[in-house]
Amino acid sequence: MSSVELRPTTGARLGPVRQGGAFLRLYREEVVLILRRRRNQALLLVLAVVPLMIGIAVRLSTPRGGDGPQFLGQITGNGLFLVFTALTVALPLFLPLVIGVVAGDSIAGEAGLGTLRYLLTLPVTRTRCLVSKTLAVASFTAIAVFTVAVVGLVTGAVLFGLRSVTLLSGDTVSLAGGLLRTLLVAIYVIVALFGLAAGGVLVSTLTENAIAAMATTVGIAVLSALLDAVPQLSGIHHVLLTDHWLGFGELLRSTVSVSDLSRWTGLHLAYAAIFLSLAYARFTTKDVTS
Q1: How many whole angstroms separate alpha carbon 279 and alpha carbon 256?
Q2: Rounded to an integer, what distance in angstroms lies between the CA atom of residue 62 and that of residue 76?
Q3: Distance (Å, whole) CA 269 – CA 276
Q4: What is the pLDDT of residues 51-76, one digit of tens each?
Q5: CA torsion sign, 274 to 278 to 281 to 284?
Q6: Alpha helix locations (H) across 37-174?
Q7: Do 271 and 197 contact (CB within 8 A), yes or no?
């Protein structure tokens, strides 16, 4: 299904409707289009299974000290740590894969179906079209991250219970404080992944092959992770897209380094700004033939 199928009367209604209202409708339609696709629903289901399986596995077999991903050993003492463990597990592969599929398909998918040219003949400027699709991809990125976080929170509460949180620094904060830090962790991950999502939008403007755009977007994350794993390239690690994805651990300390978090967040937003600027330059000047 294309976005054109979801807006059969777009041309008729955009004229009398104010620009802001028309843009919100366009944005809503893009989000609905993404969420109605069975493929994307299946991807969200896979993300939901990640914390569920981790929680069940820990419940059935308590991990030994030092085994498994970060935060795994703390889950049995506090189910809230299942959220952090699930995000740690999902970040290297599952979340980039899901976001790469949606972002890569955002424009290339319509071009491949032959509906992009028709969409641009309606009273929708290319800039508005690009912005609405970018915001829809960003919204899906948030939905994907919160899927992992919410399922992890519910599963952790049911299997292990929720209580005051002992931070990585050894201090203890109330459950309310722990939930607030969990929300901040989710927001940090969303911002970090938005850099990759913006890269996917850029790639999607460069081709009419949605599969190629999806694979290239995921490849951006894989290449960055590979470079990050090479010690000889330590000089560039701090500017790689994926290097600070797990930096949310800083939010689980009694004294949070605001300067570090600001620097890492700024890097993610800088990637997004560069990718989206290039996407704008490409999309607003390209010849749309399909």
Answers
A1: 35
A2: 7
A3: 10
A4: 999 999 988 886 555 556 667 778 88
A5: negative
A6: 38-60, 81-90, 94-113, 116-121, 126-159
A7: no
Residue 245 to residue 92: CA distance in whole angstroms: 9
What distance in Å separates the CA atoms of residue 256 and residue 250, rounded to the nearest whole number?
A: 6
pLDDT tens column, 76-130 = 889 999 999 999 999 999 999 999 999 999 888 887 766 666 666 566 678 888 9
Residue length of the chain: 290
Instruction: Judge contact between 272 and 196, C-beta under 8 A.
Output: no
Q: Which of 69, 101, 107 is nearest to 279 (CA)?
A: 107
Residues 6+ apart with CB under 8 A from 209: 108, 112
Report the C-alpha gap between 204 and 20 in whole angstroms: 26
Give the CA distances from residue 244 to residues 32, 188, 208, 281, in Å, rounded to whole numbers and listed in that order. Answer: 31, 10, 32, 28
Q: 165: part of which helix (H) or strand (E)? A: strand 165-166
Of 145, 137, 53, the C-alpha closest to 94 is: 145
Q: What is the CB neighbour count within 10 angstroms for residue 285? A: 8
Euclidean distance between the first and the last CA atom of the chain, given in angstroms as a whole number: 16
